[in-house]
Amino acid sequence: KKRIVSGVQPTGSIHLGNYLGAIKNWIALQNSYDTLFFIVDLHAITLPYDTQQLSKATRNTAAIYLACGVDTSKASVFVQSHVRAHVELMWLLSSATPIGWLNRMIQFKEKSRKAGDENVGVALLTYPVLMASDILLYQSDFVPVGEDQKQHLELTRELAERVNYLYGGRKWKKLGGRGGAIFKVPEPLIPPAGARVMSLTDGLSKMSKSAPSDQSRINLLDPKDVIANKIKRCKTDSFPGMEFDNPERPECNNLLSIYQLVSSKTKEEVAQECQDMNWGTFKTLLTDALVEHLHPIQVRYEEIISDPAYLDGVLAEGAEKAAAIADATVNNVYQAMGFLRR
Ligand code: ATP
Ligand code: MG
Where are the membrane-spanning stretches (predicted)? Predict the structure, then answer.
């Protein structure tokens, strides 16, 4: 079986973008691939954060994975920091990462500009190296990601090739290794729809956990009245009817796409159904569809989060399975890089 890994940061609350761009797609993938889904808590400390909230947010994120349908009889679910090899491999990889590659990353530029220099730790710059470690440790074939992570995945691929070139092949064989490639070079898996869910208050910027205003996103655990209120107040335009793909109507396109995904209709069906609607009618339709889609997830979430022993068990088992794969990779890398092994 081909392998897939993916994760979400336990910062803020999981929103519709994380769900439609990532988690929802995992559910279909777990049936045909060997899957590892983790909560990337080590990534969550790259910007100032609340130590009182981190462990809680990590648990909540795990519970959301399960509530959305991640099935632990098929997928391994674990917490990134529970598998030490992530940080270990990151250090080894960082020695092979040209600093210029990191300086070019759009997310670094955007987030560091917003946070201001004094708040930006080195980890925000080296974040993509940790992400590369997350992926390469498991010799992953595919990584399902939203549009925003494409550039980081490209860096992961280049880094894998560079390490294979620097330390793999004949050199590694001479040191007693199996020879050949150290890392598999992973491919991105961008979902055909939902890859970029936009903010409710600005159709040109992506829905994001770290955006200051909660009005800009629908959180997966938002109650019915909050969803209704956010949709009621979201940005609209004054064009007649509803339509996809009009560049002058990014908000309209975004909300129609969300409606399409949560109602499991085709784009054509939605275009037909909504073309003559006004904003008011469409908003009611969208709110109802969202509430209907999210309600069962919210019910399951409450069940899972109120059973901490079960959740701990899932995470312990997941970490054990993951560590077995990750340790083997990191040991190979030490060997290939010429370290004295004990
Ligand atoms: P932050 O603002 O803190 O970076 P985020 O909302 O971008 O948070 P991440 O934890 O960085 O969330 O990303 C988790 C997954 O969700 C990734 O696969 C990412 O590509 C996807 N994702 C994030 N935002 C969106 C979005 N607006 N549309 C589609 N996918 C998204
Ligand atoms: Mg992000």
Answer: none
Active site residue 321: no
Q: How many residues does the chain have?
A: 342
Tell me the β-bridge partners of 219. Answer: 15
| Cβ(327) – ligand 1 distance below 6 Å | no
- Report the predicted TM-score, pTM, of the whole model to 2 decimal places: 0.93
Among residues 20, 53, 67, the alpha carbon closest in space to that of 295 is found at 67
Which tens digit of pLDDT belongs to each residue from 268-317? 999 999 999 999 999 999 999 999 999 999 999 999 999 999 999 999 99
Q: List all residues 6 or more positions away from 122 whose beta carbon is below 8 Å from its beta carbon.
A: none
- For residue 211, which atom of ligand 1 is closest to its CA? 2
User: Quick one: DSSP state of residue 80?
Assistant: G
CA distance linking residue 89 with residue 92, whole number of Å: 5
ipTM: 0.97
Within 10 Å of residue 212's Cβ, how many Cβ atoms?
8
- Which pLDDT band holds residue 80 (cuts at 50, 70, 90)? very high
Which listed CATH number (1.10.10.10, 3.30.230.70, 3.40.50.620, 3.50.50.60) goes with 3-195+307-336?
3.40.50.620
Per-residue pLDDT tens over the stretch 185-224: 999 987 776 678 999 999 999 999 888 899 999 999 999 9
Domain residues of the chain, as ranges?
3-195+307-336, 214-303
Between CA 266 and CA 262, with CA 284 as vertex, the angle to 5 degrees is: 35
16 lines ligand 1 (CB under 6 A): no
Task: Tell me, yes or no, if 114 is annotated catalytic.
Answer: no
Indicate if the alpha-carbon torsion angle 331, 185, 187, 157 is positive or negative.
positive
What pLDDT, on a 0 to 100 scale, did the predictor assign at position 330?
Answer: 97
Q: Catalytic annotation on 171?
A: no
- Listed residue (321, 2, 61, 9) closest to 189, CA to CA: 2
Q: CATH classification of 214-303 is 3.30.70.100, yes or no?
A: no
